[in-house]
Amino acid sequence: MRKITVRQQNLNIPAPKFWRRIENAILIILIPSVVLVLTNWGFKDQEHLNRILLIVSTLIPAVVKAIGLIIAEDPENGKK
């Protein structure tokens, strides 16, 4: 198994396959599900709900995608 590196030079290298699968699960299943639950929860303060939804629907996907940009498998480690 190759070693995972985290550095700026990885921007042009695809993220490891396991990370792409986790990313898809988070962006396709988890985030919309959390938004659905939060909107039906019954918050009395709509402004508070909007702030939570903003964090869940924009900040979390941005962080997940940013991590995917800077991680990659080290090609040097896989060679023998």
Describe this structure in a few short sentences:
The protein has helices at residues 17-39, 46-70; strands at residues 4-6, 71-73. With 80 residues, the chain is mostly helical. Helix 1 packs antiparallel against helix 2.
Task: Explain what this protein looks like in three dimensions.
There is one protein chain. By secondary structure, the chain is mainly α. It has one domain. The protein is built from two helices and two strands; from the N terminus they run βααβ. Strands 1-2 form a two-stranded antiparallel sheet. Helix 1 packs antiparallel against helix 2. The radius of gyration is 17 Å and the shape is elongated. The mean pLDDT is 91.
Strand order of the largest sheet: 1-2
Query: Major beta sheet, specifics?
Result: 2 strands, antiparallel
Number of distinct helices:
2
Number of E-state strands: 2
Apparent shape: elongated
Q: Share of helix among residues? A: 55-70%
Low-confidence stretches: none
Order of SSEs: EHHE
C-alpha termini separation = 12 Å
Category from helices, strands and their pairing: mainly alpha
Strand content: 5-15%
Give Rg in angstroms: 17 Å
Number of domains: 1
- How confident is the prediction overall: mean pLDDT? 91
Structure characteristics:
80 residues, mainly alpha, two-stranded antiparallel ribbon, 2 helices
